[in-house]
Amino acid sequence: MKILNIIVVVLTITFLSSCAQKKQEKFLLVKNTLNMDRTFETLELSKDFLKVTDLSIVGILDKETNELQITQLIDTDEDGIMDELLFQPNLGPNSEKKYQIIEISAEERPKPEIYCYSRFVPERTDDYAWENDRVAFRTYGPNAQYRFENKLEEGTLSSGIDAWLKRVDYLIIDKWYKEYTEKTGTYHEDTGEGLDNFHVGKSRGVGGITYKNDTTYHVSKNFITWRTITTGPIRTSFVLDYAEWDAGGKLIKDSKLISLDRGNNLSKFEITLEGGVDKISAGLTLHDKKGEVSGSNTNNWVSYWEDLDDSEIGTGIVTTSDYFDSYERYDSEVKDWSNAFLNLKVKDNKVVYYSGFGWMKSGQFNDNAQWKTYLNHFSERINNPLEMVLK
Questions:
Q1: pTM summary value
Q2: pLDDT tens digits for 146-166?
Q3: DSSP assignment of 305-364, as one string?
């Protein structure tokens, strides 16, 4: 009888332990409410959402394939503790998918190639450059401004965003700058990887901001400080701060949190503004003004498609309905001052939009129609984000 009682106790403990383990299992249900495939959209999972104390031991398992998903950990406030876990699910139209939240070691975490990268570039004056597997960008710092204002070589006065036209999926920033500084090559010629032939000057380039006071547009000078937050397989992000600038008697100060995710042609701009402005505009340079400006009041974007040397390029800015106000074309006889603008509402001293380009020679887009379709789909996705439920 005693042995039987022991067996019963052991079985009871095993059963209760099994039930406890099942209760501890966590699943993330991701739902796509749109009639289109959803790929390369990044989900941000916090400790509070996942109900965990340490994100560094969290893994995401695809229950259909039993494969660990590629993830990226981010310390957003630089206190040494990871605040967000990123991953990019893959869902079909009008579908949902279940992922299991599991505990993994550092050795078990997938170690994929880095596709999203950014850094300060002191060897080329003081650019800040960023890229992913599809596009690359750069903008200009205080030393470039100093050189311009003192008529020194390699000076640039601009808060515009430059487009680097890459046509390979691997990282090119370090390679191109190394060739530039060592004088073993130049990124102004295409040797198979792409090139920088996109002129910015004092224009807005691909998404620089401006403030319109009465009938005059005003812009800031170069960024004054920078801070890299993360690079990795899914996202690169960084902060650029700008000195206070005079917009026709209104003093404005802005700080830009910029991020670029894998598989996307558009960078995300989250801008904090001081100065009491209720509207701001982001612009696309019109170069020789021979291209086509188009836009959508329904899908909240503006675009410019033009010939560029031996190819064609589309630039675009997209936002959500919360921030969209209107779009317009502004022509000027002043060099680099003609731009297409997306006019944006400032809410709680903040504005959010996405800006980037598609270069036909990269093979990503065949014509203007495909570029517009991309902008429409991008708008639908950001206005209808993937839904997440923890179970």
A1: 0.93
A2: 999 999 999 999 999 999 999
A3: EEEETTEEEEEEEE--TTTEEEEEEE--SSTT--EEEEEEE-BTTEEEEEEEEEEGGGTS
